[in-house]
Amino acid sequence: MDLSAINPVVLTASLMVAATPILLAALGELVVEKSGVLNLGVEGMMITGAICGFATAVETGSPTLGFLAAMAGGAALSMVFGVLTQFLMSNQVATGLALTLFGLGLSALLGQGYVGVKPPATDRLDLGPLADIPVLGRILFSHDLVVYVSLALVAGIWAVLRFTRAGLILRAVGENHDAAHALGYKVVRIRLMAIAFGGAMAGLGGAYLSLVRVPQWTEGMTAGAGWIALAIVVFASWRAGRVLLGAYLFGGVVVLQLNLQAAGVAVPVELLSASPYLVTILVLVVMSADRGRAALNAPACLGRVFHASS
């Protein structure tokens, strides 16, 4: 066992990359749930985005087009959920689970011709002399654009929900859709926009997984990332800042356990592989231990069906 081989600077930089897919998906689901909709299809949208982005990037040679295609694919799949739940009034939990199964099956079908194919490389953002700063340069300023977009989205979503009229309307729809409807707001339209945003973010997270995090296509490669994103949103009490902490915690433990395996730690590989999920859930449960405070942050209409005639 050689723990000296683990470089803390590289470890910290790697956790940002490992956390980005989860962070993007969780931020999208945060917006969806703030509108009063519970979409359990995050895993399906992520894996669909992963294959849409991978296939597009391989065929066009452009990772940027791949990311855009992944967002479109995730949003399109989320619209299936939106139509079924907002117009046909299907059960949100059952529909979300079906969406995950559909996404996993669809991606396996579409990805058959891409197994073993290497995608075009995603370039790091050139930040000039910032990247040369000792320690901090390697940790903070040596990543690709998507990492910084995910961090900007944390601040942006927090600011929009807290300070803008659009955020107030979104939260009003999630808290009391009947009152929002009585004030003249288009509840279904607002929720569909939130669902599409959530799908696009899940798709982007999936594409980051297949193009950057693990630059290859493997069937089922999300490996439960969508479920972790869902858990992070709930246990983070629907707060963007806590979502960031939860995602980075998961990413950190993932990278650490990989390094521990490489160092030959005398712990069963299966236990190390399960540790990110166990630690993330445990810590986030502790963070949300105050049930009363967590309940106050939950959208009051989460998962409830809106009837326009009510």
Plain-language structure description:
It is built from 13 helices and no strands. 71% of the residues lie in helices and 0% in strands. The N and C termini lie far apart (65 Å). The protein is mostly helical. The chain has one domain: ABC transporter involved in vitamin B12 uptake, BtuC. InterPro entries: ABC_transp_permease.
Record the SSE blueprint:
Elements: H1 8-34, H2 42-60, H3 63-87, H4 92-110, H5 136-140, H6 145-163, H7 165-175, H8 177-182, H9 187-213, H10 225-235, H11 240-263, H12 269-287, H13 291-297
Organism: Rhodovulum adriaticum (Rhodopseudomonas adriatica)
Transmembrane segments: 6-25, 37-58, 64-84, 96-115, 135-161, 192-211, 217-236, 243-260, 266-287
Membrane topology: Multi-pass membrane protein
Key traits:
transmembrane, 310 residues, ABC_transp_permease, cell membrane, transmembrane transporter activity, globular, mainly alpha, ABC transporter involved in vitamin B12 uptake, BtuC, transmembrane helix
Shape: globular
Topology as a string of helices (H) and strands (E): HHHHHHHHHHHHH
Q: What is the residue-averaged pLDDT?
A: 88
Helix/strand class:
mainly alpha
CATH architecture assignment: Orthogonal Bundle
**Would you report the number of β strands?**
0
CATH first level: which class?
Mainly Alpha
- At CATH level 3, the topology is ABC transporter involved in vitamin B12 uptake, BtuC
How many structural domains does the protein architecture include?
Answer: 1
Q: Proportion of β residues?
A: under 5%
Rg result: 20 Å
What's the story with the biggest beta sheet?
none
CA(first)-CA(last) distance:
65 Å
Please work out how many helical segments DSSP would assign. 13
Organism: Rhodovulum adriaticum (Rhodopseudomonas adriatica)
Subcellular location: Cell membrane
GO molecular function: transmembrane transporter activity
Protein name: Nucleoside ABC transporter membrane protein
